[in-house]
Amino acid sequence: MEATIDVVADEFAETTATPEGPIELTGSAGITRDPDENDEVVLETEDGRRSLGVRDVTVSQGREGKPAIEVETASTHVRVVNNWIPTGIRIQRSTGEEVELEAGETATLVSDATLELGYATTIDLSVDFR
Question: Would you put residue 21 in left (φ > 0), alpha (ψ -120 to 50) or beta?
Fold first, then answer.
């Protein structure tokens, strides 16, 4: 299974680059804020680190060797873990259901969803079972 993420900058967000379009994910990835890069929100994979094109001081930075958010694709679902964001992650499922994922909680997604991180960063997550 594959998933793609596409960052949608809130109208109040400070963008850092023109969005490159959706990013394909396989395996696991981390999303975190990099305070050394002017609070840029980044995606960390085994291939390296990539800017998501937005600065948001309200997205938590990684700590204890873990990113703020983990996204892991599996054959039947996508797992989202909120490791450190104290304000929570708001998840809007394609079914219309809304879930608030508190720090330390995990959600399992089987279809497209929108993830709101911090106050100005929104990620569209598309799930594709191939």
Answer: left
What whole-number distance in Å separates Cα of residue 78 and Cα of residue 108? 6
Digit-coded pLDDT (tens) for 1-51 = 667 878 776 666 677 765 567 888 888 999 999 999 899 999 999 989 988
CA distances in angstroms from 73 to 1, 16, 121, 125, listed in the order given? 7, 27, 21, 11
Instruction: Answer yes or no: are the C-beta atoms of 26 and 61 closer than 8 Å.
Output: no
Query: 35 φ, ψ to 5°?
Result: -65, -20
Helix then strand then coil, % of the chain, to nearest 5: 0, 55, 40
Q: Please return the burial class of 21, using the count of CB atoms within 10 Å of its CB with bins 0-12, 13-18 and 19+.
A: exposed
Q: What structural domains and CATH numbers belong to the chain?
A: 2-125 (2.60.200.20)
Tokens 């840029």, residue located: 40
What separation, in Å, do the N-terminal and C-terminal C-alpha atoms of the chain show? 5
| 101 bridge partner residues | 89
